[in-house]
Amino acid sequence: MKKLKLGIMISGRGSNMRAIIEACRLPDFPAEVAMVVSNKGDAAGLILAHNCSIETRHVDAKKFADKDSYEAEITSLFSDMGVDLICLAGYMRILGDGFVSHWQGKLINIHPSLLPKYKGLDTHQRALDSGDAEAGCTVHYVVPELDSGEIIAQTSVPIEDGETVDSLRQKVLTAEHKLYPAAIKMIAEAL
Ligand code: GRF
Predict the structure, then answer these.
(1) Could you point out which of 85, 103, 156, 163 has its C-alpha 20 to 30 Å from the C-alpha of 140?
(2) Nearest to 38 by CA among 64, 65, 7
(3) Helix (H) or strand (E) holding 180
(4) Protein residue closest via CA to atom 5 of ligand 1
């Protein structure tokens, strides 16, 4: 089985990244992690990936003249590694149109809401404020418009009496850790 090569982009703790790395360790999983890139040098996820013997790079936007050249460096790193699919996993910068169109159809993200509801930030607070009966997470293709690309997979979780932002965030995150590897598997198997 030829495995799909993944490039993962993070900015922080990398719990979704870890879930993907763990899934990729299963012998029958149809993907492998080729490289993890972080825009933050102190991202906990970078150390975690390094400790899993995965190639890691800190690419610091401040060292580049502009966003295009910064993102061109990431494209070049991933291309050199033969990356087939980029997974955004808590990557906290908005990507430029050039990068997004270069990787069109090969760039996915996980978002902590039931898209198209609650694009952007504070998704759990907004779900609670709206009195929703359920919340959840979505894996979607990335397009230039924020959190708006085609939906690949979604999981919902119930919002219960006494639910807080923290309890909901934890519940949704647990669902994210199952959904992201499952979505990657779906994509790999459809190729
Ligand atoms: C997750 O909630 C994800 O949905 C959002 O950013 C968060 C990243 O968390 N895009 P982690 O770094 O994967 O733990």
Answers:
(1) 163
(2) 7
(3) helix 165-190
(4) 90
- Mean pLDDT to the nearest integer, 142-152: 97
58 as an active site residue: the answer is: no
16 lines ligand 1 (CB under 6 A): yes
* Distance from C-alpha of 132 to C-alpha of 45, rounded to nearest angstrom: 32
| Residue ID of nearest Cα to ligand 1 atom 6 | 90
pLDDT in the model for residue 1? 78
Convert the pLDDT of each residue in 113-142 to its tens digit.
999 999 999 999 999 999 999 999 999 999
To test the ligand 1 pocket, which listed residue (9, 16, 38) has its Cβ within 8 A of the most ligand atoms? Answer: 16
On whether the pTM is more than 0.90, the answer is yes
